[in-house]
Amino acid sequence: MIERLGYRIEPRSETTARGRTLAVGVALAASLVLCALLFLAVGVSPFAAFQSLAQGAFGTWRAATETLVKATPLIFTGLATAIAFRARLWNIGAEGQVFAGAMFAYWCQSALAGSSAWIQLPVIIIGAMVGGGLYAGLAAILKTRFRVDEVISTVMLNYIIVFALSLLLLKGPWSEAGGFFEQTAKVDPGSILPILFDKTRLHLGFLLALIAAAFVYLMIRKSPVGFEIRAAGSNLRALEVQGTNSRRVILMVMLISGALAGLAGMSEVYGVHYRLKAGAITSYGYTGIIVAILGLLNPWGVVIAAILFGALVNGATFMQIKTGVPSALIYAIEAILLLFYLAGWAASSFKLKRIKP
Amino acid sequence: MTTTSATPRLAVRHLTKRFGALIANDDVSLTIAPGELHCLLGENGAGKSTFSACLYGLLQPEAGEIEIDGVTAELTSPAKAIASGIGMVHQHFVLVPSFTVLENIVVGTGSGLRLDMTAARGRILDLSRQFGLEIAPDRLVADLSVGEKQWVEIVKALYLGARLLILDEPTAVLTPQESERLFAIIQQLKASGIAVILISHKMNEVMRSDRVSVLRKGRLVGTVTTKDVTRDDLTMMMVGRPVAQVHARSKPGAGETALSFTGVSLAKGGRTHLKNVTLDLAAGEIIGIAGVAGNGQDELLEAVAGLVRPDSGSIHLRGEDIGALSVHDIARRGVGYVPSDRFRDGLVSDFSIAENLILGQHWDERWRSGPFLDETATRRSAEQAIASYSVMASGPDMLCGRLSGGNAQKVILAREFAKARHLLLCNQPTRGVDIGVIEFVHGELLRKREEGCAILLVSEELEDIFALSDRIAVMFRGEILGIFPRHEADIARIGPLMAGHAHGAAA
């Protein structure tokens, strides 16, 4: 069809960083236009909608910190996904690992209820990493021992753990005594993540997320472990021929990835909701995949993308109150952003060539 | 050859093909007469493949025109090239293994929905009789030998009406005897007026052509009549300077045994890869393994490197059984391994030269400072390697995926030679690299040998084997059919063994 117009699409031999930025920039601008059309379709001025969105996300100190609260779990799951994808391990299981982390942390912590925060806080942090890590490690072992594709196993494990939690909460040992909802009782005050600033909800989890990002950055960029992760992402076979046990690399990457995801669960339970329930920890794993891709699998890119997503979610409520745009529209905007971004990225690898008129 | 007054079969005028800033073909013009065997000669990256891809419609040139039998041809796709009478036999065959020969040839040729298989079979039999290609139309392609598959490709091109046949390095996968058969077939093709373009860098084949066009860096250096020139003339044209001959060398030292195989066998996926291999390699000795690709050479080296475990038998490195050691432990004992597929097994393309040079040693103390990799140290050592192996690169941070084949190979050599204190396993060290690099690799291997390193060399290029080996072993279907001191080895003895004819050969 395009050839009839006198053009042909050809792959580029080389894509410059500038060309790529330009293509992605144009695509994102186009996505804003499409979002504007969506606003028009529901009868709201796009200008007012965007303005209220921004105001709701960053308009006040309180709003800005709330955006960071929303971003915190996404930083963890984005990092978890980024590190796995860097090694070309398609860990789609951050969702389940978030659950596993929260549950294992809760299990450890509930035995210590009443003790000092200096004991409980390290326990929930380490417990979350162990829980998430082990759950991801299961997929790694299935892959290295039985050649089960990690996409399949991690997705399946996501289902299993959601039902497992439901079972524990519904009639199991964790259900709140006399409670009506599927949730635990409030956690011990000594296990609650401290608030960073007065009159906000921003908690220690955000600081931990930034530390995790710095840790992941240094590890990938500078350490022998990161060397193996990056090598595995490009050519696992060469790494193996040079004497590195690829099973060890796969297990290690999944353990680290799961541990990071597990922290997201801990951070939501002990930083925001103060009880364990599915609603507190659902969907961060899947959104983390989008965050990781938008963040170019780079730790600092993940932080930025997570804050952007936090802002969208946080601003949406304000936008709904102020303009009447349904806040569910935000999910459409997220998807549009991702699709246009990916399209721009892909398009930058091609060029239009004029053939004979 | 026919007279020049006739219309040329192919006339190419001022063909230019660019890839971004790189000019792959720069104003190339040449003509080929019917019945001519025309050789395209040039180093890797000289533009031979680009030129043939333009002829076959796989690439579109920016400028220039192509005429076939005096008619301008618009070669915008392979289908149009085929319709214009151009056929191509690729280095890697494009055949469906689960189809019969007949099905492979007629697939995609039918007009409409019907295929007249009886007529097709008749034509195929006619063609194969006419050109001396013995093919049975009803055999499965999966059951054919490499040489026979190539015949199928040729018949397929002829069936489609090729008047100009492009053969891309056709002998790379053939035994010497199969190559002879191929040239006999080419004679038949010529006799019937079909023009043949032969892409090759093997001088003995080039010398059998009628004319040679030499490409260098995308430019046509010249087209010469083969009988008027010598091999050295052509090499000069191709490289642009005289090439040194391989150096004299000392007698093989009667060093201690560096490596010994005892009754090593390996079967995998229903195929025998190694069959009762027994072989001793002394320090300071080069043993060359001759054989057609896929006869167990890869597995022989991989077994020593620890990448595959033999089913039976033992391998000793300087007296120590290495059967249970990991790849890493074997490498630490002073073994270097140059794999045949350098971008699959040898290098991480997205890694810099500095990073690739420490691949596998990235936990070593000397490359670390504290918990992190010591970039100053790795970069310094990479600069040294780039200098001493004359790698054409912008610096230690250049990504290996951007290196040419020859320079990528040099990076691997730099890493593996440093590791190889006692033993070097070398698989196809000169595959796909320029004459200049071949010369360099030969020199380095001999230097390594002088240092007392034992070298096990696998190469499909018999020239490598003959130039370097102290002893030559021939492998066929996993078995060593004979071992000869170099002065007793010649093509006549080795060729039949490569094809599995063991009779009369003494080990």
Describe the overall structure:
The complex is a heterodimer of chains A (357) and B (507). Chain A is an all-alpha fold. Chain A has two domains: 1-42 and 339-357, no CATH class; 72-296, no CATH class. Chain A is 72% helix and 3% strand. Chain A has 13 helices and two strands. Chain A has helices at 17-41, 46-58, 61-86, 94-110, 117-146, 150-170, 204-222, 224-241, 246-273, 278-281, 284-294, 299-323, 329-347, and strands at residues 7-11, 350-354. In chain A, strands 1-2 form a two-stranded antiparallel sheet. The longest helix of chain A has 30 residues, at 117-146. Chain A is globular and about 75 Å long. The two termini of chain A are 14 Å apart. The mean pLDDT of chain A is 91. Chain B is of the alpha/beta class. Chain B has three domains: 10-239, 3-Layer(aba) Sandwich (Rossmann fold), CATH 3.40.50; 244-334 and 420-507, Rossmann fold (3-Layer(aba) Sandwich); 351-419, no CATH class. In chain B, 32% of the residues lie in helices and 25% in strands. Chain B is built from 17 helices and 22 strands. Chain B has helices spanning 48-55, 78-83, 101-106, 117-131, 146-159, 176-191, 203-206, 231-239, 297-305, 327-332, 342-346, 353-357, 375-388, 405-419, 435-450, 462-468, 491-498; strands spanning 10-19, 22-32, 37-41, 63-68, 71-72, 86-89, 164-168, 195-199, 211-216, 219-225, 257-268, 271-282, 286-290, 312-317, 320-321, 335-338, 368-369, 372-373, 423-427, 454-458, 471-476, 479-485. In chain B, the strands form five sheets. In chain B, strands 6-7-8-3-9-10 form a six-stranded mixed beta sheet, with helices on both faces. Chain B has a six-stranded mixed beta sheet with strand order 16-19-20-13-21-22, with helices on both faces. In chain B, strands 2-1-4-5 form a four-stranded antiparallel beta sheet, covered by helices on one side. In chain B, helix 4 crosses helix 5. The longest helix of chain B has 16 residues, at 176-191. Chain B is globular, with a radius of gyration of 25 Å. The model of chain B has no long low-confidence stretch (mean pLDDT 86). Classes of the chains: A mainly alpha (357), B alpha/beta (507). The A-B interface holds A 13-14, 218, 222-224, 227-228, 230-231, 233-235, 237-245 and B 19-20, 22, 305-307, 326-331, 337, 339, 343-351, 355, 359-363, 368, 371-373, 375.
